[in-house]
Amino acid sequence: MANILAIVGRPNVGKSTLFNRLIEKKKAIMDDESGVTRDRHYGYAEWTGKHFTVIDTGGYVTGSEDKFESQIRTQVELALDEATVILFMVDSYMGLTDLDKDFANVLRSSSKPIYLVANKADTTERIHMANEFYALGMGEVIPISSASGSGTGELLDVIVEHFDEGDEDPDEGVPKLAILGRPNVGKSSFLNSLLGVDRTIVTDEAGTTRDAINTRYTMYGKDFILTDTAGIRKKSKVKEDIEFYSVLRSIQALQDSDVCIILVDAERGLEAQDMSIISLAIKYNKGIMIMVNKWDLIEKDTKTADVYKKSIQQKLGQLDFIPIIFTSVTKKQRIFQAIEKAIEVYDNKTAKISTSELNDTLLPEIERYPPPALKGKYIKIKYVTQLPSQVPTFAFFCNLPQYIKAPYERFLENKIRKSFGLEGVPIRLFFRKK
Fold first, then answer.
1. Full-model pTM
2. Which of 64-68, 100-104, 239-243, 282-286 is least confident?
3. 257 burial level (CB within 10 Å; 0-12, 13-18, 19+)
4. What is the pLDDT of residue 88?
5. Are strands 393-398 and 381-387 parallel, antiparallel or unpaired?
6. Per-residue pLDDT reduced to its tens digit, 312-351
7. Of 126, 62, 118, whose CA–CA distance to 90 is shortest?
8. In Å, how far are 61, 70, 106, 198, 356 from 65, measured between CA atoms?
9. Parallel, antiparallel, or unpaired for β 176-181 and 222-228?
């Protein structure tokens, strides 16, 4: 990531609004409340043929009562270290504040190109008001409106001069693993433990993570993207707008992912809300694995894991093909095995089985246990083939496809799983006339 633009400044100046405009997606949550963004947030943008990474950051403050203040500052400092170009955003409507002055002093030690951008300059009057920021001594003040897009083109013309000819989105085609679950089950701690750095802010307070945070990660010689998400609660319990949008971002991350790692609190077990998340992942044809976290807090004997696993599988019912792994993020127990299992699920999701292998394996089984006759008519399955699809999808060609019922479909699915594995992925079966 050679071309990196970091958007920084005090809270509520419009950093996330500009971030969303540059990447042309509503990825970061925007709200009039200050301190909505907490973690570093990455996206990809393009201007005049040059591709670059944009980092959205939380508002930089000192001396506030916000319990996340110091951690947000750390995230901002990490973004400044990564950046090729720094965009220091201020608010032309509110004018120059002490927080702006303090942050300008932080930036003075940086040798990187810094552009002072006065946002919310929607009118001629506000463009003139932006001139007071020359008092910061940070060079030219560039008035823009990130909400309407006014002035952003001219700003980008100047910024991209510092960038090389970057590639298009480098994450295109890379497997995406989404970390999902209820609030406070250890999703951010899991990501931070894997990376060995505090990529996302972690506290005991539910709802600490708000946006879906993407991180590129390499393990076992494979590249993939880990997405930390906000906790998903029942709709009836979501009261604030910010949490509502956080949940929307989590569901969007689920839809964009290839494999969903669903974290479950070992002390609470698999609850109705976990089943709702699993059902959503099945609906969107995602690979799924269940990661039971906080396993170190459970009193155990030699049979505890087996009993616990069976109780989860009973609740899963026909979804018992979903793998279950027991971990402790705080103790770093089996967290890498969890990722290994997620990669295995991804490989299963993208597996291609040859037509000859399918027929050699399944047709003898079908001959041994043919579909039950219906209305005195015998159903004969001639051959099987895999269809190109996002999940393993198989077409069975037969003389009377309309007479094949759900129990026999389940029989065929079980035979496919027994013969070819495909753990953690939904299988779709179609019956066509031959």
1. 0.65
2. 239-243
3. buried
4. 93
5. antiparallel
6. 999 998 898 999 999 998 888 998 899 999 999 999 999 9
7. 118
8. 10, 11, 20, 22, 67
9. parallel
